[in-house]
Amino acid sequence: MNGVHRRMDQLLGGKTAIIYGGGGRIGRGVARTFAREGATIFLVGRTEATLRTVADEVASAGGLAHVAVVDCLDERAVEAHAASVVDQAGRIDVSFNLTSRGDVQGTRLLELDVDDFLRPTTGGLRSNFITARATARYMVQQGSGVILMVTSGSGEATTPPEVWAMGGTGPADAATESFMRYLAAEVGPRGVRVACLWTAGVVLENDPLDAAKDMLVSISMLRKRPTIQEFADTAAFVASERGGGITASVINVNSGISAR
Known about the structure:
Elements: E1 16-20, H1 25-36, E2 40-45, H2 48-60, E3 65-69, H3 75-89, E4 94-97, H4 114-142, E5 145-151, H5 161-164, H6 169-187, E6 192-198, H7 210-213, H8 215-219, H9 228-239, E7 249-252
Parallel strand pairs: 1-2, 1-4, 2-3, 4-5, 5-6, 6-7
């Protein structure tokens, strides 16, 4: 049980979860929720101070979180960390990549720099591949596990680009979702599930883009933006045994901003 008391009503009781990008605002919400649901958390990111803050919040709520400063674009470092988690916890049950991709938005494609366009695809796909491969290798050996990814649901270009000026975000989302499905097909027969969560315009405290994101309320089916807690609760369900029938799928957590 990783030294943590397990309650029968916890979705992730006794599980070990690695959260890549765990120091970010969404990562913080996911970490707190996963810990509340009984998981032992391993927080990974590039900034120790933010990771420590999240770990302290988890500990204050009675959970257990470990911190590691790792660049998720460095495959050797990610592999070494995954091995250390298995040495310490005995297994990896959930791997969730919430790392940032350096998306550049607000500039039309015809004016966008090539590097700015490609960065979210090359960086995002590399990070997701490295972290998923490192953790999936252990999951297939143990015959179970869940790998989660996140995109903004922009991969299908369902909204006119002149409205959004999303830059390379759409192609990056499409690449990640395609990888998710291919990986799910490969590891599914060995008991490992892979899924992606959509979210867009999520409500963040002190968000400098808050006013701009409020425009999403008018096109949302629920007439609101999704919250971090809604996103984290959904992720916990998908990662749990109650979500055991979900794989190779995209779960839409954007309050109906997009219809799929």
